[in-house]
């Protein structure tokens, strides 16, 4: 570990106990930002700048000033520094090591858009360093990581926004859908189906020398030490400029070592909306059943037997028994979006449309005034970043809080575990553990690689 300062849990608690030391721990979000006028612009930094990092930073320039960026890919880092300098007229400092960002006392908040396996380590250390946190979804790689983040949010009092932007953006459809369910427009909900798309299997991907601009060991970080793998064919469109097949940029979602596939990618959006509509943000399923699924490589005891091909499930249909007798289905077939079915009707919603007879009936029987705002808990924010900054000012948790996100994400994590082991799982939502299955419970956590433990 480098010798520069990094606030640990022990240092945080010592500072909490000594008021004279408190100003050394808390960032300007408490010592300055929260006490200044509503027009005061907070100081931000972004950690992880490819794709989503670039996107969420771009959405935030309007509301905040960026003092620093961090990324283990020097090319990505330089490109984003140049963009930021043009957007805000000031060049942010650039670091490979995110810990140097956390040392900066003037930084109020960090936006985290690293690959999923880095989220928890960076987020926990950022909170102990006195930073508020905006972290991309899915928030965690394992269920126990979610419990740890909840503990640290409570302990430090930091504001924490999860990047499930469907809660704020595309609101004319998703918030309307939730309001429809809550208003009883489809009667008693019986079944909710989330279509989240499939993954394609990969060919064998050879081990090659990493690109010169990439610190591969640091990119792996908490994950096991493995060779960099890539084929020469390049990805086009969103996520372009990188190999189509690899175990790194963009394609990391295809590997259990770094992510949870479509289940924690699109699933983190659509399952979230489904659970929000059902009002079960503090509960969870009782059973997860893998009705059908396809793994791209052979598995034994829940682990892939090869390391040179994608190992995430490519196709699946998962059923979850939810409270009040509701069946939640997560499937890779059909339209991407959410189908709500009740005793008195059904409708479908995604980012492009909301359709069905209950929607058509709104022409003669509209929702009451304020129904959308009631779902949101107040005035709807301009975008997800704006909601985060509003919460930083009030010191309340934002629209996408860690508790409801983790409860929803547990369904997605359990679905992956059920497919890896090839059996249904019984889940205790109160204890947040798998019932009577020690082997499956072992997948609720994952040990970080030596040298990349979370600084507690």
Automatic annotation (TrEMBL):
Signal peptide: none annotated. Residues 81-163 form the Gfo/Idh/MocA-like oxidoreductase N-terminal domain. Pfam families: GFO_IDH_MocA, GFO_IDH_MocA_C2. SUPFAM superfamilies: Glyceraldehyde-3-phosphate dehydrogenase-like, C-terminal domain, NAD(P)-binding Rossmann-fold domains. One of its GO terms (molecular function) is nucleotide binding. The keyword Iron does not apply. Its EC number is 3.2.1.49. Transmembrane segments: none annotated. The keyword Hydrolase applies. Residues 209-453 form the Gfo/Idh/MocA-like oxidoreductase bacterial type C-terminal domain. Keywords: Glycosidase, Hydrolase. InterPro entries: Gfo/Idh/MocA-like_OxRdtase_N (IPR000683), Gfo/Idh/MocA_oxidrdct_glycsds (IPR050463), Gfo/Idh/MocA_OxRdtase_bact_C (IPR043906), NAD(P)-bd_dom_sf (IPR036291), TAT_signal (IPR006311). This is Alpha-N-acetylgalactosaminidase. It comes from Novipirellula aureliae. The gene is nagA.
